[in-house]
Amino acid sequence: MKPFRLFTFAVLAAAIVPRLAHRGMFVDGVTYASIARNLAEGRGSFWSPSYTATVYPQFHMHPALGLWLQSLWFRALGDHMVVERAYAITVALATAFLIGAIWRRLHEGNENPSSARQFEWLPILSWIAVPVVSWSIVGNMLETTVTCFIAGSVAALVEAAWARPTAAFVAWGGLSGLCIIAAALTKGPVALFALAAPLLVPVTSDRRGRSLLAAAQWTTAGICALGVLSVPEARASLLQYLNEQLLPALDGRYDSDSLKIVKVMLEGVWLPMIVGAVLIVAAARELVVPSKGEQRQAMSFLLLGLAGTLPILASRKQMGHYLVPAVPFFAMATASFIAPTVARLVGRIVVNRQAGAISATAVFIIFGTITASFVPALDRDRQRLADLDALEPMAPRGVTVGICYAASGDWGLHAWFERRFHVSLDTAQGSRRDWFLQTAPPAAGCPPATCAPATDPSRQLILLKCRRP
User: Fold this and answer.
1) Domain locations along the chain
2) What is the pTM of this model?
């Protein structure tokens, strides 16, 4: 299996490394990195993180565990642009490891070559082939951390099936419940779908064992939830999250396509997996029908993936990356169904001594990945980053800078100034600040006449030094 594992690693690297190697990042990811860095520096607390002095000085748009975990990396490594990228790629690799661990444990002792444990690379390959997965990883999205916790929860359930005595069995179920609460404290109740895993995933054929596992998981999750809510600061923080984010998403205050999540699931997740399966069948020149057990396993993971996707329909706020935590289970379902055909194809490749071609392709992909990491054209927000670089020598640190009202809705501007310079942008009191930021083109009546350019006036971002009236 070494050539196929190498090929899977190469595809994983190609999907995330070139974009992580560049400085540009999706605005939400820059925002989360800024909050995590602020936590590491003592600005804000676990239950009340801080973004900027003017935008969410108390950030309650999401629960704080994922931000706090990333802050540990800033504490250890310092304030560098590589920190959030190192965190994202580490969590992605941990998720891939957990997907492989689930597959291996489910097929432990299975001598059927079409579903043997050595095919753990197949669900990993199916998972990373979904574009929204790699987009979330390189964007430093909270869903990446949620996915890791959810995969850890299911891995604990699978591990429990091999645990002896009963106390260890229950302990693994409890660990699964802890992982679910951790996921919920990262991105909210969307993570609770994993509570259905003991009933859906074929962990054990023993009905009593499944009931005991579910009881251990649910009891642990319930006790942890009650414990968190018993802390006044935690209860106040989560209540603000409920009022500021969750309820507005449910009562229609957000204007979004009510079926967007289904469209993304069909077009962005299932379509790539189906295309990949068709290509495998074409290469194998036949479709090997999976066994009854493999079909049941595929259906179980499909149902678990749907449990993590369809409840999002209740929200008017729907984004494609919201379904990322469910993708590993769609990948497991696809891998379970197509594994016999893949086994036939792999056998043919080995017999024909073509495994070297797989390894050569993997090496070529890795070489291309390294090359792409140095291609400037792949960088996101190149113009804005160049303007920020030009401001670097003169930009003040740790202050509030005025800005025109017309530019106040540019959330990328807020995110990058906080991330790069610890600078907050303010419109309400902008004319009273020592510094003012002018964006191109300048708005009518703005900036104040008392401010003069202190940086290159030909650029799209210009810092002005102001005289107080």
Assistant:
1) 2-372, 382-466
2) 0.91
